[in-house]
């Protein structure tokens, strides 16, 4: 504990400040008693070194030393006070809403009787003033933390119902499946993959995914028809106007909710005008307009009416109040309602009911103050744009050549190191600890092996840290990088204690089990110690580096890459930071499989190599096209057809068959999916 030392230091400083003056005044008295007279000056000049003058000089010197000490202490105290004042100024104060909620919670806690707890029924949201300005609609929850409740998830950029959050997580998984499907192998290279289609998803998407880390998101989102029907059912049949401080935030929430539902329904679900889309998304509207599936953008309300009349299907029509007049919007609402859709006018309904919108997403019907209204998804511009990334079509423009990344780390045998000496605060290492090495398996199920036995790591975050440091070897990671990866969307200031506690427990568990320290902390960076630890990923990276730089016997080098890859990186884990690294690693191995198959003159052996690639990635269209071509060339037409059919079923089950079959590589007219050692049963 530090407080005894701090108390002792304070007592020493006080003793040094008060002790010398007391001693000097009591034993010697004042060093100078008034100004010296002329006789005293003349006597001092004639005989300067006397007992009295020496005593006075020593006394003055002692006082000067004490003044220097007092000055130093005063400067340190002022500096500390200035730092404290600056910290207090930066300390976030509670908003009026927080203060009100805290006061109500405190009153409820202290006002409840100890022998009885009464839960009052939820009250409807209070009506908002109709004239509240709408340009203050930015959703800024007082807590930047990810808060999951029974009905939704609160993010820094808004609030998502559980159904929408699950659809976002499922759509994010589909993004990576599409990237796996569309990747075309290339010759193995010496650099890390930096393709644009392997970049991580935006922070808001990662925050939603993190909410499902401990309880993984379903591979298939909630039934889209049910989600869309629930959204339509929450709105009046006659149409709805929305007014209040949460108007634009709810408009963005409707945009995201409808497009996510339409993404799985594969039918157009949203109609809006260019002006409305710009008001919701700002400068990103024009770039996203033509790349959003299931969205139809028109210029005027008359165009929207003609579209709904010509293609009657359930849709949400989003408009701005300034674009509407009474008759046109009434006619459009009736037409949309006939087809099972709804019209929502942001800013007020010129020919029907107008509900008040709170920044929290609650809608309130002023004509029915006793009935609580529904709560819809609310998002600010940044969060809405981030979430659109999971459903937007890739940019049709060809991507610029990626800048080569840093070379893969070359794993070399570690130099012999002196064993770390234990301090009094640490238990001594076991006698044979210096000769032991632990093994960390991250390809497949992450496992830390001590003498061949798996070590139980209780915290999921601790296991994430181990895998994250393994993937970032040898550079390591600082506290900010660890916090952003393990807990995306959570303010760093609230993570310091959680991160240090997790690291401390992890290091203690490893030290107690093995007597070794495998996590080093130098220069504010955490690294894994290769002298005490073997990691299968590092062996794979060394094989990739060797294959990329091999001038001769490349076939053996490529085969070593394939042999060093038993399974996907942290297979089965849904950590948001993991997908880009996992995909980059997988692509290196697929490149090696394709290179081996291209260099193999024996057709059966070439087919077996393609089967190995398909076992690594059963979604890759190029590998399936190669396998289809190999089967067709050998005359296995029935097997090729079966392979093609199974591939289409796999894509359909995954939910990515909407645009796959028509855009497969030209190696074969039909690409396929699954693999097996039997040429007629590639699984």
Automatic annotation (TrEMBL):
Comp. bias regions, Low complexity: 666-683
Q: Which SMART domains match?
A: BTAD (SM01043)
Q: List keywords of the entry alphabetically.
A: Membrane, Transcription, Transcription regulation, Transmembrane, Transmembrane helix
- InterPro entries in UniProt: AfsR-DnrI-RedD_regulator (IPR051677), BTAD (IPR005158), Sig_transdc_resp-reg_C-effctor (IPR016032), TPR-like_helical_dom_sf (IPR011990), WH-like_DNA-bd_sf (IPR036388)
Q: Can you tell me where the transmembrane regions are?
A: 58-79, 91-113
Q: Where is the composition biased (Basic and acidic residues)?
A: 423-435
Region of interest called Disordered, as start-end residue ranges on this chain: 120-143, 394-437, 659-683
Bacterial transcriptional activator domain residues: 535-665
Residue stretches of biased makeup (Pro residues): 395-412
Would you say which domain of life the source belongs to?
Bacteria
Checking Gene3D superfamilies in the record gives: Tetratricopeptide repeat domain, Winged helix-like DNA-binding domain superfamily/Winged helix DNA-binding domain
Q: Which SUPFAM superfamilies match?
A: C-terminal effector domain of the bipartite response regulators (SSF46894)
Q: What is this protein called?
A: Bacterial transcriptional activator domain-containing protein
Organism encoding this protein: Micromonospora zamorensis
């Amino acid at each position: 504990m530090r407080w005894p030392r701090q108390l002792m230091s304070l007592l020493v400083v006080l003793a040094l400040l008060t002790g010398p003056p007391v001693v000097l005044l009591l034993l010697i008295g004042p060093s100078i008693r008034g100004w010296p007279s002329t006789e005293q000056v003349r006597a001092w000049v004639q005989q300067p070194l006397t007992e009295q003058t020496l005593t006075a000089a020593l006394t003055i010197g002692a006082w000067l030393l004490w003044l220097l000490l007092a000055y130093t202490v005063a400067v340190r105290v002022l500096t500390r006070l200035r730092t404290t004042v600056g910290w207090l100024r930066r300390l976030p104060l509670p908003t009026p809403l927080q203060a009100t909620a805290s006061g109500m919670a405190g009153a409820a806690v202290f006002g409840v009787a100890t022998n009885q707890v009464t839960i009052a029924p939820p009250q409807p949201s209070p009506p908002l003033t109709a004239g509240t300005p709408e340009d203050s609609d930015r959703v800024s929850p007082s807590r930047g933390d990810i808060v999951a409740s029974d009905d939704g998830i609160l993010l820094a950029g808004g609030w998502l119902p559980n159904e929408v959050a699950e659809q976002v997580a499922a759509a994010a998984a589909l993004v990576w499946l599409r990237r796996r499907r569309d990747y075309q192998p290339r010759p193995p290279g010496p650099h890390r993959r930096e393709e644009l289609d392997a970049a991580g998803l935006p922070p808001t998407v990662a925050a939603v995914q993190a909410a499902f880390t401990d309880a993984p998101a379903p591979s298939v989102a909630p039934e889209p028809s049910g989600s869309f029907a629930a959204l339509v059912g929450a709105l009046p049949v006659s149409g709805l106007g929305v007014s209040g401080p949460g108007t634009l935030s709810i408009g963005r929430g409707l945009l995201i909710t409808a497009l996510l539902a339409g993404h799985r329904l594969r039918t157009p679900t949203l109609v809006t005008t260019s002006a409305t889309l710009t008001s919701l998304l700002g400068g990103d509207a024009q770039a996203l307009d033509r790349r959003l599936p299931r969205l139809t953008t028109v210029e005027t309300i008359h165009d929207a009416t003609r579209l709904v009349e010509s293609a009657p299907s359930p849709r949400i029509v989003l408009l701005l109040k300034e674009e509407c007049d009474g008759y046109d919007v009434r006619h459009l609402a009736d037409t949309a309602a006939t087809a099972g859709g709804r019209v929502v006018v942001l800013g007020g309904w010129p020919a029907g009911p107008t509900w008040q919108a709170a920044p929290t997403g609650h809608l309130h019907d002023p004509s029915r103050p006793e009935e609580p209204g529904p709560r819809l998804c609310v998002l600010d511009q940044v969060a809405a744009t981030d979430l659109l990334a999971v459903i937007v079509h890739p940019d049709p423009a060809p991507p610029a050549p990626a800048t080569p990344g840093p070379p893969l780390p070359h794993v070399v045998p570690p130099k012999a190191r002196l064993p770390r000496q234990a301090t009094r605060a640490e238990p001594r290492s076991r006698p044979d600890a210096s000769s032991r090495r632990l093994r960390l398996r991250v390809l497949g199920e992450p496992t830390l092996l001590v003498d061949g036995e798996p070590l139980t790591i209780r915290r999921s975050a601790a296991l994430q840290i181990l895998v994250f440091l393994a993937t970032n070897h040898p550079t390591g990671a600082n506290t900010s990088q660890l916090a952003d990866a393990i807990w995306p969307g959570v303010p760093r200031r609230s993570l310091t204690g959680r991160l240090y506690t997790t690291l401390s427990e992890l290091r203690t568990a490893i030290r107690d089990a093995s007597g070794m320290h495998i996590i080093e902390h130098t220069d504010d960076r955490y690294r894994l110690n290769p002298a005490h630890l073997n990691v299968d990923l590092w062996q794979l990276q060394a094989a990739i580096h060797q294959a990329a730089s091999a001038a001769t016997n490349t076939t053996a080098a490529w085969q070593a890459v394939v042999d060093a890859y038993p399974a996907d990186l942290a297979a089965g884990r849904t950590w948001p930071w993991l997908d880009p690294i996992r995909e980059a690693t997988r692509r290196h191995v697929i490149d090696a499989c394709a290179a081996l198959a291209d260099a193999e003159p024996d057709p059966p052996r070439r087919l077996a190599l393609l089967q190995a690639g398909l076992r690594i990635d059963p979604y890759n269209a190029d590998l399936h096209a190669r396998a289809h071509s190999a089967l067709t060339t050998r005359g296995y037409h029935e097997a090729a057809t079966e392979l093609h059919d199974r591939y289409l079923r796999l894509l359909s089950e995954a939910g990515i068959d909407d645009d796959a079959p028509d855009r497969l590589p030209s190696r074969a007219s039909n690409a396929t999916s699954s693999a097996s050692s039997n040429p007629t049963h590639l699984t």
